[in-house]
Each structure stands twice: as structure tokens, then as C-alpha cells.
Amino acid sequence: MERVVLCMKWGTLYGPEYVNVLYNACRANLTGPFRFVCLTDDAAGLVADIEVFPIPEIGLAPDHWRGGAWPKISVFCEDLYGLKGRALFIDLDMVIWGELDPFFEYGTGLVAIDSAPWRYRDAPPQTMSSIFAFDLGKMGWLVDWLRADREHYISKYGIEQRYLHGEVPQIGYWPQDWIKSYKYHLRRPLLVDRLMGPAKPHPSLKVLCFHGKPRPIDLIHPPKGNWDRFPHYGRGQVPWMAEYWARYGGTV
Predict the structure, then answer these.
(1) How far apart, in whole angstroms, are the C-alpha atoms of residue 19 and residue 13?
(2) Cβ(57)–Cβ(122) under 8 Å?
(3) In angstroms, how far is CA 141 from the centroid of its own chain?
(4) Which residues pair with 36 in a beta bridge?
(5) For the whole model, what pTM was predicted?
(6) Which residues are registered as beta bridge partners of 111?
(7) Sign, Cα dihedral of 50, 48, 216, 225
(8) How many angstroms separate the CA atoms of 233 and 226, rounded?
(9) For strand 35-40 and strand 51-53, is the pairing parallel, antiparallel, or unpaired?
(10) What residues form DSSP beta bridges with 134?
(11) pLDDT tens, 75-119?
């Protein structure tokens, strides 16, 4: 089965370097052939080996592009530029720390992150779409439903990952030791974070998930003062994050 890595970039929050670093990190951590596809409204600055297509039009209003990540639902189009096989969608603010082949081999149907254990022990699953796998062209009904009753679903769910959680009948979840959260697993406790920088990911980790603030670039090109969300605290460049960025072609 053909393997496709998908990412998506729109607006100005994430520049082309995010896409290029992600591509290089995937290339270093996947064995065998795969296609790397970026769906975007602006392909300027992307390296030549990245396949580029426009983000499919699925009937969203301008507000839906600014909040809720609803354009991501377009990857489920019944015909996504003729792409076939198993797809692995990766958000641009994910850090590829280890092998990715298992993500193409694990489970069937839609497989995503269960973020509930990051915060609550023994909580029911909570779907997070920062990295998910699916079979291309097999879930077009998600796009059809959204097109047909857009305001209902957007009002009901607010963000696209809740739409997936609420409407996809069976979702598989990645093993918890494959993916960790910067916020919940590497950030130091309050007050300690003023004395020590974030912990370095364990070598066994496959993917490090950034979600919200801070973003990876804050740890690489830190602004003056606190780059974390108060009352948490982060200051200065984080060496392991800068080394990752440089290793995969980013500017530090």
C-alpha cells in the first residue's frame, strides 16, 4: 500500500521552514518509499521534493479558517488529488523524534491521539488530531456532512477534532508511549521552570506534540522575556530543540 505523509499550511502563523523541517525529519525517520504532500494556499519557499496541492474547497467561511482548524477536514475528500493508500497527517508544530514506520502499520481506519491520559487518569478517550492516520478516499462522508450542514456541526463541535471524535464511529488510538506532550510531559513544574529549562525527550519517543503556546519556534528563536503561557515560564533558546531544528534544515 502506498504511504503518504500529509501536512497543511494556510495563513502566516507557520512559515515554509516548518514544512521543510517536517519533510526532512520524516525522510530521516521513514524507511522505504513515501510521498510527502503539503496542502497549502502559498507554496513559496518549500523545497522541490515536496508535492504541493491547493487546500480543497469544502464550503468554509473565512472565520472557519481562523479558528477551529476546520480546513483539515478536507483531507477526507473522496478524491484528494488522486492520492491513494494510507495517509499520515502531521501538524506542522509536531517534532519527529523517532521512527515513523509504525504509524503506517498500526491499526485500521482512523487512528489518532488520545490526549485524555495526559491530564486525567482513567478518563474516557479524547481525540486529538495533531497526528492521525486514515485510508485515503474512505471517509468522504465527513466532508459531505460538513458541506451539507456546516453551521450545525461547527456550532456543535467548535473545532474539527471534536467533530471527528463525535461523528466517526470507531477511532483507534496510538500507544501512549509513542507520543508525548511538551506541556504535560516536558515542561517543568511551576517555579522550577524558572530555574531549569524543559526536559529533553527520551530517545524512545517517536513524536513530541506541541499544541497552542509555546510553539517550537519560541524555543528556537525565543522572544525577550517569557515565551511560555503565564504562570508557566520559559526563557532563552532550548538547546535540544535548536539542535533538532538545525539537523533538519531549519535556521537557528
Answers:
(1) 12
(2) no
(3) 22
(4) 5
(5) 0.96
(6) 133, 172
(7) negative
(8) 6
(9) parallel
(10) 87
(11) 999 999 999 999 999 999 999 999 999 999 999 999 999 999 998
CA distance 130 to 8: 11
Looking at this protein, which amino acid is placed at residue 248? Answer: Y
> Sign of dihedral through CA atoms 32, 15, 216, 63?
negative
Residue 96 corresponds to which cell in the numbers above? Answer: 519527529
Quote the CA–CA distance of 216 and 238 in Å, as a whole number.
10
Q: Give the angle 187-190-191 at the CA atoms, nearest 5°.
A: 115
- Measured in residues, the chain has a length of 252
Express each pLDDT in 30-56 by its tens digit.
Answer: 999 999 999 999 999 999 999 999 999
Residue 28 CA to residue 87 CA, distance in Å, equals 18
Distance from the first to the final alpha carbon of the chain: 37
Higher pLDDT, 138 or 212: 138
Select from 106, 128, 245, 237 the least CA-distant residue to 180: 128
